[in-house]
Amino acid sequence: xxxxxxxxxxxYIDGEWRPGTGSWDIIDFNPYDGEKLASITIxxxxxxxxxxxxxxxxxxxWGETNAYARRAVFEKALAxxxxxxxxxxxxxxxxxxGTRLKAAFELHLVREFLRESVQLALRPEGKIIPSPVDGKExxxxxxxxxVVGVISPFNFPFLLSVKSVAPxxxxxxxxxxxxxxxxxxxxxxxxxxxxxxAGLPGGLLNxxxxxxxxxxxxxxxxxxxxxxxxxGSDKVGRHVATVCAANFKRSVLELGxxxxxxxxxxxxxxxxxDAAVFSRFVHQGQVCMAANRVxxxxxxxxxxxxxxxxxxxxxxxxxxRDPKTVIGPVINSSQADALSGVVEQAIAEGATALxxxxxxxxxxxxxxxxxxxxxxxxxxxxxxxPVVFLxxxxxxxxxxxxxxxxPYGLSGAVHTADIERGVNFAKQIDTGMxxxxxxxxxxxxxxxxxxxKHSGIGRLNGETTVDxxxxxxxxxxxxxxxxxxx
Length: 486
What we know:
Elements: H1 4-7, E1 11-13, E2 16-18, E3 25-29, E4 36-41, H2 45-64, H3 67-83, H4 85-96, H5 100-120, E5 127-129, E6 136-144, E7 147-151, H6 157-170, E8 174-178, H7 185-197, E9 205-207, H8 212-215, H9 218-221, E10 227-231, H10 234-246, E11 250-254, E12 259-263, H11 269-281, E13 291-297, H12 301-312, H13 333-348, E14 352-355, E15 359-360, E16 363-364, E17 367-370, E18 387-393, H14 396-404, E19 408-409, E20 413-415, H15 419-427, E21 435-436, E22 452-453, E23 456-457, H16 462-469, E24 470-478
Parallel strand pairs: 7-8, 7-10, 8-9, 10-11, 12-13, 12-20, 13-18, 17-18, 20-21
Antiparallel strand pairs: 1-2, 3-4, 5-6, 6-24, 11-23, 14-17, 15-16, 19-22
């Protein structure tokens, strides 16, 4: 077992590693073999308060620090990750059940977002805006919001913590991070350890490992944070947004999806099969952008289906430490049970299982279902695991209607020999992101990332991150003398 699970099984508040003072522990389990990795005494409401107050104190000096000096921290964080890559990989495999391929993918993206944070420190620019008043100069400053609260999920916890934490820090803010209780090390204390070793001043980044059963809404209601960045389900996201609005805070919500990969009649079938298999089954399908639904034009349905089912049938399910494993365990037994329920419900509604994967504890083999009734709610909800629905269609108009028939709008893809046909198709989909002749799972540091409908509010990456974690301040200067009416 990595020493990370013993050394980092603590809270990180005001630059100090310390146990929580709650009355119970979060037990961190390996989802593959059930091994107990760590026991972490939870943080209380008082410790959440201490973390936010520490971030508030530390941020004042950090916000005034030269941006060139701030970015050095992120350059050092990259060096720390490079030096610890193997150990971090092992921790991702153990705590998430991620395969080696998944760990490498996540580490690659973390590096990309840290590199962007190096540049992000220099990105905010002010403006001089004309005034209709003689002698008046309007200066628009872009300044840090102050403190950002970050709540990260269990599926890509390292990436999705860093993706908010690093830009918020680079832009001059303090941060308090609350990782998911299933991934407290990879999504929480590992991030703190990396930044500590990179020389980030104490107090700027704090990690509280806790549960809403202990703290309720204290993390999002607290008066210090001005922005809450949340990644998770739309149900919880709705609650986060409501509490934030009631407390005059901004929320950035990256929520669930029910993406579709669409194969038009002129597509390269073999390539579309490869894209669809990756889009559904990467990290066991526990990805918000995953292709829950694969829509295929009826004219090529038979060919596509035969090749798709054959390829899915070759995916090895098992020990994530084995380099040949493609599908490791889902995060916990509740997820495994829910996925079994989805398959059984679909079959009960009349669907045919072209592949009906077995479930062994948290190992869920792939299931491929076709013939799900068009009015089934299963086609409209997010399915977070290795279960996919094949849906035939007749012509583009019907495909557009089916793709949009869901409360979600995060990602998607279309395959066609005609690129402009694909672009025109993409324009008709109510979604934040859509890809032509590729998979549905993409994230890049400079391109705005986010969804429509129940898939979220706001965007991250590039300039949209600057908008999310800074605010504008208008300072006017009257060089002459104003005339007042009295």
